[in-house]
Amino acid sequence: MESKPIKVLVAEDKDYLRRTLGRIFSDARYAVKLAADGAEALTMFQGAQQTNGGIDILFTDVEMPNMNGVVLAETIRREHPKSTCPIYFVTGGIPSLSRAEAALYNQLLADGRVQGVIAKPFLPKELWSTVDKHYPQSL
Fold first, then answer.
1. Domain count, the chain
2. Which of 23, 14, 72 is nearest to 43 (CA)?
3. Per residue, what are the HEC states of the chain?
4. Is 41 contained in some domain?
5. Which long-range contacts (CB under 8 A, 24 or more apart) does 103-111 make?
6. 44 or 1: whose pLDDT is higher?
7. Closest by alpha carbon to 12, among 31, 28, 40, 35?
């Protein structure tokens, strides 16, 4: 019996990086959805919850227009409390957030609602090993 591919959602506002992340995951045979901001990612996440068993893992940039990754993560955890989807922040350094967003960023990490941070630049194997922590033998 063939296993279903891992469903990865990537939220990244920079087009080049979003397409690169999509290629990295699709080359590894993951099912990938790409969102240009947090609002689009939230819509995709909610749609997947209703139609195909949800998203297996979410990688989100922290700083994006419309809805940043911090608000995205908090909204998913609040609106979908039964979701076990791991969430990872992907960031290029110290994010420029408001004081309240910075406090929420730290709290999401401290209480385990966000599983970790991946620093840009990264190697594909860092992303794959992150998925493998949650879905061993996924490659």
1. 1
2. 72
3. CCCCCCEEEEECCCHHHHHHHHHHHHHCCCEEEEECCHHHHHHHHHHHHHHCCCCCEEEEECCCCCCCHHHHHHHHHHHCCCCCCCEEEEECCCCCCCHHHHHHHHHHHHCCCCCEEEECCCCHHHHHHHHHHHCCCCC
4. yes
5. 104/70, 104/71, 104/74, 105/62, 105/70, 108/70, 108/73, 108/74, 108/77
6. 44
7. 35
Residues 6+ apart with CB under 8 A from 129: none
Q: In this structure, what CATH number is given to the domain that contains residue 82?
A: 3.40.50.2300
CA pair distance 111, 49, nearest whole angstrom? 23
- Phi/psi at 40 (5° precision): -65, -40
Q: Is the residue at 1 inside a domain?
A: no
Residues 1-15 pLDDT 10s: 457 889 999 999 999
Mean pLDDT (the chain) is: 92
Amino acid residing at 24: I
